[in-house]
Amino acid sequence: MDSDFRAGCLVLAVAIEEPPDEESCAALTAVAEVFSEWEGLLADSLRERGAEPRDAAQLATLVAVAVEGTVAKCRAKRSIQPLDDTAEQLRALILGAIND
Predict the structure, then answer these.
(1) Angle, helix 53-77 to helix 23-48, in steps of 10 degrees
(2) pTM for the model
(3) Are 46 and 97 within 8 A, CB to CB?
(4) CB neighbours of 49 closer than 8 A, spacing ≥ 6?
(5) Rounded to an integer, what distance in angstroms lies between the CA atom of residue 64 and that of residue 69?
(6) Is 60 buried (19+), middle (13-18) or exposed (0-12) by CB count in 10 A?
(7) What is the per-residue pLDDT across 35-87, written as a single tens digit (0 to 9) for each?
(8) Is 30 within 8 Å of 39 (Cβ atoms)?
(9) Contact indicator for 5, 70 with CB cutoff of 8 Å
(10) Which residues neighbour 82 within 8 Å (Cβ) at sequence distance 6 or greater?
(11) Banded pLDDT at 29 (limits 50, 70, 90)
(12) Does 90 have pLDDT greater than 60?
């Protein structure tokens, strides 16, 4: 990996940092909005491909948190294997949701 596993998701980094002051509240609000936007885009795409609305929303949340958690695990293990494993399982869940 070019970054030697030092790079990660800035959105996640802001989300997990302890806010030092009230100015950080604006950053956390922005992060929450980004996660909501990502989940909304994913849910919309899943619905367009035939997923039930409730399933699409829940699966979109799962995808977002799974990917973010996987990035952290990849960094800790210094391996992309967790990403490959997560992608395989998410793919199966997504295909199940859009093919039902």
Answers:
(1) 120
(2) 0.78
(3) yes
(4) 98
(5) 9
(6) buried
(7) 899 999 999 999 999 999 999 999 999 999 999 889 888 888 989 899 999 99
(8) no
(9) no
(10) 70, 73, 74
(11) confident
(12) yes
How far apart CA 60 and CA 94 sit, in angstroms, is 9
DSSP state of 19: P
* Ramachandran assignment for 24, one of left (phi > 0), alpha (psi -120 to 50 degrees), beta (any other): alpha
Q: Alpha carbon of 7 to those of 18, 39, 72, 83, 99: distances in Å?
A: 20, 22, 10, 14, 35
Per-residue CA distances from 53 to 41, 48, 62, 65, 98 (Å): 13, 10, 14, 19, 11
What contacts 60, CB < 8 A, 6 or more positions away? 38, 39, 40, 41, 42, 43, 46
Q: What residue type is assigned to position 96 of the chain? A: G
Residue that has been written with the tokens 């039930």 in this structure? 52
Per-residue tokens: 42: 């994913």
Q: Which two tokens stand for residue 18?
A: 């302890």
